[in-house]
Amino acid sequence: MIIETIFSTLDASGRPNFAPMGVLWGEEEVIVRPFRSTHTCRNLLATGYGVANVTDDVLAFVQSALDDVVLPHFPAISVPGVVFQGACYWRELAVVAAAETAERAEVRCRVVGRGWQRDFLGFCRARSAVIEATILATRLHLHDRETVLEELRRYGKIVRKTGNDAERVAFERVAEFVRRWLSDRGG
Ligand SMILES: Cc1cc2nc3c(=O)[nH]c(=O)nc-3n(C[C@H](O)[C@H](O)[C@H](O)COP(=O)(O)O)c2cc1C
Fold first, then answer.
1. How many CB atoms lie within 10 A of CB 155?
2. pTM for this prediction
3. d(Cα 9, Cα 7) in Å, to the nearest integer?
4. C-alpha span between 9 and 105 (Å, rounded)
5. pLDDT digits (tens), the chain, 187 positions
6. Last residue of a domain, one of 98, 116, 134
7. Tally of domains in the chain
8. 34 CA distance to ligand 1 centroid (A)?
9. Residue list, ligand 1 pocket, CB within 6 Å
10. Ligand 1, from 9, 11, 21, 33: best to mutate by most atoms within 8 Å of Cβ?
């Protein structure tokens, strides 16, 4: 099953990078499929280590996807890497094999460490809607303007109906990013 994580890596100078990544989740092995254009792909292949953070903090998904922020973190235990401070739980990963296509890498990682801070509460429609809107915002070039606006309206309705302030703030950041992207392209 693909689980949406905030994936952390270090670059060659040791600077942490955070990005949402859907990973194929297993207890012993995790498979990451980053596009080759991402920092995550470059860092993971160069260092051989990463951390898959599971969190319900949707603003962190938005910020790490759309703004180049270094999220609050602390050192991982079993790999050279960092854990997102807002992680409910996480897996520390060592790369065992990588295959690359023109677009993506498929990176098989062994779970070499793990940690837990708090329970993941459960399903929440507003949080799922923010995650979907963030995915949309990272793939705007693949859709036409009408589709983007329609999807954004649909997710916005769910967030307004079922979310709290945290989800509304996170969604507004995505909506602002999308509006700016469309207006830069003459929309
Ligand atoms: C929930 C979610 C899942 C994502 N999964 C992937 C993924 O599996 N592979 C990928 O390359 N990008 C994925 N993305 C897009 C990246 O997070 C986005 O391109 C990000 O800016 C890459 O950051 P980086 O260059 O710092 O690694 C996902 C985005 C979201 C919101």
1. 22
2. 0.97
3. 7
4. 15
5. 999 999 999 999 999 999 999 999 999 999 999 999 999 999 999 999 999 999 999 999 999 999 989 999 999 999 999 999 999 999 999 999 999 999 999 999 999 999 999 999 999 999 999 999 999 999 999 999 999 999 999 999 999 999 999 999 999 999 999 999 999 987 6
6. 116
7. 2
8. 7
9. 4, 17, 19-22, 33-35, 38-40, 61, 65, 131, 134-135, 138
10. 21
